[in-house]
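Entry type: protein chain
Record version: 2
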Amino acid sequence: MTNSGMLKTGIIGTIITGLCCFTPVLVILFSALGISAAVSYLDLILLPALAVFLGITFYAWKRRTNPLMPTVEQDPS
């Protein structure tokens, strides 16, 4: 994955996960679908996902600002 693609993935994932963590979007959706019993497990999935996406964003940002870090080149095949 290129550096700009990794940065975009991290930022978009952080925004979506943050919306689901800090607003009742998933609670309303799960209630409408009739699976509101799963609401108690949302924190077990959303908080680690938020941490992962924040880590990806930070890593890609650091790679972008520090030219001495190794870059990952895509295979042309």
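Comment: The chain is about 70% helix and 0% strand.
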